[in-house]
Design a protein that fits this description.
The chain is an all-beta fold and 95 residues long. The protein has strands spanning 7-13, 24-25, 31-37, 45-49, 55-62, 67-77, 83-94.
Amino acid sequence: MDLHQQYIYIYIYIYRGLKIRESILLGTYDRMIYKKRDESAGCNEYKAINEDQRLLYISEVDSTNRIIEGYFEFEGINDCQDTLQIEDGYFKVSF
């Protein structure tokens, strides 16, 4: 594996029930994290800020093929005080 290779992960933790096809504004205990795994970099984890601007929308749950699909957006900040804005984040994952 190349030591300069990066992996990017998005973690979304929801501590309550979800509804399909309804925008979910994340609350105090919910978390969204953007994380870069890069062996040569520091300050690689951005935690969501601005609770009123964090959004998760689940558009489809296919229980036959075991796929969840939707989109999200949030603004994040890391320990070095760098910020990022994710708009139109899209996911399609197996479960």
